[in-house]
Structure formats: C-alpha cells, structure tokens
Request: fold
Amino acid sequence: MRVRTTAAIAAVSSLALLTGCGAADMTKQASPFANAQGAKTVTLSVQSWVGAQSNVAVAQYLLEHELGYRVDTVQVDEVPAWDALSQGRVDALLEDWGHPEQEQRYVEDKKTIAPGGELGVTGHIGWYVPTYLAEKHPDITNWKNLNKYADLFRTPESGDKGQLMDGSPSYVTNDKALVKNLKLDYQVVFAGSEAAQITQIKQFAKEKKPFLTYWYSPQWLFEKVPMTEVKLPPYEEGCDADPEKVACAYPHTPLQKYLNADFAKKGGEAAAFLKKFRWTTEDQNEVSLMIAEQKMSPEDAAKKWVDRHESTWRKWLS
Reply:
C-alpha cells in the first residue's frame, strides 16, 4: 500500500515528468533488453512519485557506470508492479510501502518474489495543514476539531463540505473511510497526480490560504512548504485490516525492496548490489529536490549525488 496505502502518483515520461501513478498495464510490457544475448541487463520498476524515481535513478547510474549493465526502466503502478515482478517482466522494485496481500501471495505462497531488504527510508502518510495555519489555529492539528474548521477548507470541488485533497485516484488510501468513520464534514477531492497536487499546494501556500491534504514523507516539498501533521486516532497493529472500517492513523513503514526470485538467485553483481542499496531519507530528498524543483534530469541528479557521496555507495559494490 503506499502504506496499506499509498500513495504516493500519473505517469512519468522518461522519468523526468513528475505526475501521478500511470495506468499502464505492465503485464503486457517487457524490457527491450530482455532477450539481448550475452548482455548484462537489468529492468527496474519505476513508481511515479519522485522519491521512487530518485532510488531508480541512482541505482541505474551505478549499475551502468560502475558495473557495466544495460538498465531498462518501466513505469508501473503499485499493485501491477507486483504482478510484473512475479512474472519476471521487471527484476526489481526498490520502494514498496507495504502490500500485505501481494506479499502473502508472491513471497510466501508462490515464492516468485524475494525480499530485497530495507531501503533505509521510513515512509509515513498523514493529513497535513500548512504550518502558517497551524500557528494561527493550534487546535486544528487534532482531528476532533476538524469539523469546527470545515468552512475554512471549502472549495468549489468540495461543495458545502471541507476539502481533503488527495493525489491520484490510483493511490491506495484510507481517506474516504476515515472521513466516513470519523464522521467528518469533509469531501475527498483528487488532484489527479502528485504533480497536480504539488502545484495546488504551492498555489495555496503562495496565497496563504487554508488547505488540508493527504501527504507523505519522505518528500522534498516539506522544505518548500512547511506543513504540520493533523493527529488522527493512534495507529495500532491491525486497525487498518478492514479497509471499510479504518478509523486510525497511517503507520510508519520501513520501506522495502523486492526482487524477482530468479533474479535474486541468478542476477549476479546486479542482484547483490540492489540488495545492498540502502540510503537515508536525506539522501533521497537530496536527489528528489534536484529532479522535481531544480528540473534536472534523473541521470544528472544521480550523477551529482554519486559524485558527492562515494563513501556511501562504495559499500553497495563490495
């Protein structure tokens, strides 16, 4: 789930466009390098949120420039990515926010997917308001007080209710259930993609307008638009087991990597490298900021990070 969830976003064009989760059917696609005789090739799954793009950009750069592989990347939504990985259409998924059903089916039962270890980054989804609004109305950061402020968040799209802004309809979120089960006078409104959501948040912030949004960390936008999380009922193990009855916060999730099981065994240096690939939230945000805000190509952003952090990535090659 981009956490039993997710989040986090439309299709990326050549990895450079930052839009929301695409709708491509990855079960119909394969790497153009898949049958290249004698070639050292790797195919990486790319989710459309910029943090996931950053992982892939750095992994691709090092696989190509340090290990001599040809790397293909394929855009795919969260759940279809598991199908593609199981079928060997892609070799690795570098940022998963937790999909228990897929883990059970493919890792435990079919054994067609193998764990690749932790990414090193902890993900969290939540509801956020701009910090300038939280400073003006400190009690707005408790969900119990949200109805009192619903009028502040009304938009043409939300009608007579307050607007809770989400990203792409393709994200797996609990927000509609939360609004219903917590009896909140709000309407979930989808921006359409991560890029559209970021644009809307920036516009609201520029005009110092109130907004309530589904958002997640790690995410570079926090550095540009400070936001404060709204406290939902505390997360407890299993409280989100029934999607219709969810009435608790999203968990904090150590993000995981997964490899196609055959690739994990026979993928040589590439598989070993991807298992060792592990960096920090700060590392990921550094690359994400270059791609999303500074408009660098993923390859250029990856090269810049690699040039600055040799002591980090050398360990992944040993």
